[in-house]
Design brief:
2 copies of one chain form a homodimer. Chain A has helices at 4-9, 18-27, 109-113, 121-148, 153-168, 179-185, 190-202, and strands spanning 31-35, 40-42, 48-62, 68-74, 79-81, 93-108, 172-174, 206-209, 212-215. By secondary structure, the first copy, chain A, is α+β, with helices and mostly antiparallel strands. Chain A has 2 domains: 4-141, Jelly Rolls (Sandwich); 150-215, Arc Repressor Mutant, subunit A (Orthogonal Bundle), CATH 1.10.10. Chains A and B meet through strand 4, helix 4 and helix 5 of A and strand 4, helix 4 and helix 5 of B. Chain A binds a DNA duplex (30 and 30 nucleotides) through helix 7.
DNA sequence: TCCTTTCTGTTGCATATCCCACATACTCAG
DNA sequence: CTGAGTATGTGGGATATGCAACAGAAAGGA
């Protein structure tokens, strides 16, 4: 259960009073839980939708050989759930794991979609907040597709850098994760990416110091 | 304007009476238009959200050199809009073009999100339908990311095939587009993909006849 | 503090992938 | 039917990418 202060910052319960918030939790049979780093948050076995209210988590895929790949980075406002991601198209399994200590709200997907008999105002606002979160998610996924659909490592990197640059509104920005994870994110070999990064630096397309990058132009 | 019969099949106006539908169109200042093949549907200059009610369209990216890439395939129920896709992260432009004759509804995004003063029931249902469509979209994008995040052409192909197989519930299925477009979809060179396809056929992993494929196992 | 683990940076080598080029088959409009 | 345009199928040669392996730097826990 969130405190009144935390509620203010909640993306899912935005614009909802503390009293309504508590009633929603019971009406929707919503569950709120906290997690520590590396804990398993969700294994795609239930129909619940999860929303990250605080902290950071990652959606990862584990293939038959046990190799893990980061599919999504879930920050505050990140949503996940069986109905939102591919229903395990292959033999490999999906997991949401905690990176930094998390608060997560779980709501049964059917409850959100089914029209509430008492047509409560709360329901309507919650659905709208949910819609906003879904729109954000679709946007994030679209950006990812944009990057991944590039043909070379160089193009993928530059595409991603330009996205970050645009998001921060500055030619200088900081990666949200490590370089190793970046290689995962753009789905390439880490060493090959490092090589390409060096070339980009040498020819002056980017400057970098640790995780801080500056792109030219 | 849809006929009563067409309305039944509409994903956005699902469960909405014909009278409500007409009132919504005016209340939300929604616009409905029809398009012929190859016509430009949307150029991402307005804040409207579009929903494909009938026909088929494609979201394409055109880079600086004028090379077009299919980013998304929009069938019935497909949603698109500036607020849903990357806001032109790079210098290249985005377009939604008509493939097969289309009916499209445009609604201003702000109208959907802003809480209607009269708190009409219509509004609430529309938002819920929109939420469903957004969930579908996120799922489609997730599938695409799943494919694109594979490291080799072979893996991308098999991943995509397994998805189709699972969607149709059969080991035999038909590609929704041409092999050339498939190469685009999985973001690889067409000739390289053909070569890999040949190998997969030779070793018996897949059988194919035209656009119809059957995967083993 | 030390110790363990992860991240960063780099290289040689094998090869999967890209790019170009060509030939045939197919589709559709006139 | 005929031609234009597009899709399919194949191959050779160049190279970008993946893989394995290593070492130092940085981070985090005991």
């Amino acid at each position: 259960m969130l405190s009144e202060l935390e509620l203010e910052k909640s993306p899912l319960f935005h614009d909802i009073s503390y009293q309504d918030y508590r009633e929603i939790l019971s009406c929707f049979q919503a569950v709120q839980r906290s997690f520590r780093a590396d804990e398993l948050i969700y294994d795609f076995s239930s129909d619940a939708v999860g929303v990250v209210e605080r902290g950071q988590a990652s959606l990862i895929r584990i293939d038959e050989e046990g190799v893990a790949t980061v599919l999504e980075d879930l920050g505050v406002g990140g949503v996940f759930g069986k109905t939102l991601a591919f229903a395990g198209s292959t033999g490999d399994s999906l997991e949401v794991v905690c990176r930094h200590p998390c608060d997560v709200v779980f709501i049964d997907y059917a409850h959100i979609l089914s029209r509430c008999g008492n047509a409560c105002r709360r329901h309507s606002i919650l659905v709208q907040n949910m819609l906003q979160l879904m729109a954000d998610k679709a946007q994030a996924l679209s950006r990812r597709v944009d990057v991944l659909s590039r043909r070379s490592i160089r193009e993928k990197l530059m595409c991603y850098f330009r996205q970050l640059s645009q998001q921060t509104g500055s030619r200088t920005f900081t990666l949200p994760f490590s370089l190793s994870t970046l290689a995962d994110y753009i789905a390439t070999d880490r060493s090959a990416m490092m090589r390409e990064l060096k070339r980009l630096r040498e020819e002056g397309s980017v400057r970098s110091d640790g995780r801080q990058f500056t792109i030219r132009q």
